[in-house]
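At this stage, I put together one protein's amino acid sequence and its backbone structure tokens, which the following lines show:
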Amino acid sequence: ILNWEETQIMGDDVRLLQLAAAVPQQRGADTLENEGYRSQAQTGRGTQQGARLEDMQVDIVFAIDTTRSMQPFIDMTKEAVAKLVRNFSQDAAQRFRFGLVGYRDDVQAVPELEYAARNFTPEFVDGESLVQLLDTEFKATPVGSLDYAEEVFAGVDTALRSAWRDNALRFVILIGDASAHPKGHAQNTTGKDAQDLRREADDAQVHILAIHLQDPRAAEDHPISIPQFAKLSQIRGSQDS
């Protein structure tokens, strides 16, 4: 630990640590013969470097299954977001922006579903606006799909193409209870799978967090959906999710 400071984030006392770490098998050109490293090593530790906490921007996109089994969980998400927004300081409220994507299934198979994936926020919105969207426009459909699987990959694909702000921390929070149609399936509208989307997320510097709702009545689907959700939420540079 090179340096640390105490601060507060959303009312909680935290310590921000400046760390130096040695990663096995990842040693770089960190010798004084390297001009870039020498310049960095000689920079005074008392000077301010990098982004400050008060300047940090955060973009969060919720990608949520809106098929008919999901309305209770949409309501729970709305309550959780409302609680989060109420706890924001005025400064934090300015730095956080939100997006909202819903996904269902292939409308070629069931036109009444209206969309396979829809971005409800072409431009990011503040927390209060997100709560209003979840309350008024973002509803589960009463129409059933042809099978249990949904267009999870279409939802994530749409979320990854959000209007991210430059230099913002980027997160997608995926919430669903069913597997995705695999690549090559007639109802897979993107031609992509979890591996493809994971690669695109890494390239876009987006962190995916997955909330996989496991209904015991759909136990046969879990061996398919669990690996998909785990791959989508895999931590970059790690096998963990």
Notes: The mean pLDDT is 86. The two ends are 26 Å apart (CA to CA). The chain has seven helices and seven strands.
